[in-house]
Amino acid sequence: MTAYDDLMAFQRETEALAQVAGRLGWDQETMMPRGAAPQRAEEMAAMESVLHARRIDPRVADWLAKIDDGALDPVGRANLRHIRRDHERASKVPAQLAARIARVTSEAQGIWAEARAADDFSAFAPTLTEVIALKREEGQALATDGDVYDAMLQDYEPGTTGDQIASMFDALRPELSELRAAVRAAEAPPRLQGSFDEAAQMKLTRHLAKTFGYDMSMGRVDKAVHPFSSGSGLDVRITTRTNPADPFNCFYSTIHEVGHAAYEQGIDRAYLLTPLGSGVSMGVHESQSRIYENQIGRSRAFTSWLFGQMKDAFGDFGIADAETFYRVVNRVNDGYIRTEADELQYNLHVMLRFDLERALVAHDLQVSEMEAAWNDRFEADFGYPVDKPSNGVLQDVHWSVGLLGYFPTYSLGNVYAGCLHEAMRAALPDLDASLAQGNTEPATAWLRANVQTHGGLMEPREVIAHATGKPPTESPLLAYLRAKFTEIYGL
């Protein structure tokens, strides 16, 4: 077992360095002074060079060759599966290309943020063109003779192909579009109106984070332009954002990111700083954030408790009772922003991005055509025009940092969440009584035991099948959405 022990000791150092690199990214999005961006880009490139060198280190191949997989337990075999996959992928990418991608995407974040603030896509287009070109080059190296977009997907959802994602969307789109049309034709619940103090929002949002089990002794909540979760193990940080006119943005962004963070904090501590010590895929990760945010956080039972919390924080805010509040929270609104979209329309936003980025990678769409393509597709899907780039092609950070292949995992996570919610409700028939008291522990404990603790032990779809007893499908999500919005809108 010496070769395995040596490999794992080496891997723990690699995992620790990757956490340091992640902390640099967290700092860049939260606290780094703007003028530090050029230096941070060099720091990120240097860290990526070190990490890439470790991933392709010849000793890794030697250790792997010496290890008898059959002599290992399931944990050992799972560790080797991840290490082999990462080693093979990293070995296909030239070190100079990996470092250049890290440098350019670090710089691109700041350029994107400035272009977004100025509503000027042309200011970002040259940088995006460079990012896309570099990611295509990386994808071609990874794909060898296969599909480039499929190769990109493996970074976020191993074992999934673009065709499988397209089939999932084909199954979702008709019913989502039909239900959306029916809802838009029905009488809508009232809107939340007024101004909500941002300091009070942050106080309540930290309370919500703790309510959903976020361990603040190993985490923190900060503000960022685009909410995110960062880190794993004993240091998992989240961000949110505030808007005086829309406290739900703050509260539900926080609950969403706590879902990500709780996954990382809930992984078996024996896996710390090993390949199993992080979430197995972005689809499974998103299943946790979406079920926390939506099936739990927007449920009638939980919103009845949240209604009281908001009255305590803001006084009379114009909503008469808990039932009306539930309907307000779940109101289907016209809007441009994916992260603010209701459950019914959210996946339509993801479909748009999936189709555009897949066309970009295939050279069927050029960056110069991107803004017009986005605007045309958005109006066709949603029925009204995009008013400005920050509400359209510039709204997401993902392409600036090179996350091509990431977007479809959001919808995959919704599908997984639908499956998990169905199984969780069957296992916890009295869950609503706890949620109505602001007690999420039965739900979060079930998710921790059935999903989170396993980390990377299983493959993504195996995690969901293990938790639910059957392979994941779109049916539970569609049934949940149909029942919920039919009832709210009296269809």
Automatic annotation (TrEMBL):
Recorded catalytic activity of this chain's protein: Release of a C-terminal amino acid with broad specificity, except for -Pro
Co-factor: note: Binds 1 zinc ion per subunit.
Alphabetical UniProt keywords: Carboxypeptidase, Hydrolase, Metal-binding, Metalloprotease, Protease, Zinc
Residues that coordinate or bind Zn(2+): 256, 260, 286
Statement: the UniProt record of this protein carries the keyword Lipoprotein: no
One GO term of the biological process aspect: proteolysis
A GO molecular function held by the record: metallocarboxypeptidase activity
EC code(s) of this entry: 3.4.17.19
Active site: 257
Cofactor(s) essential for the protein: Zn(2+)
Keyword Hydrolase: yes
Family designation: Belongs to the peptidase M32 family.
Biological role: Broad specificity carboxypetidase that releases amino acids sequentially from the C-terminus, including neutral, aromatic, polar and basic residues.
Protein name: Metal-dependent carboxypeptidase
Annotated organism of origin: Sulfitobacter alexandrii
Highest classification ranks of the organism: Bacteria, Pseudomonadati, Pseudomonadota, Alphaproteobacteria, Rhodobacterales
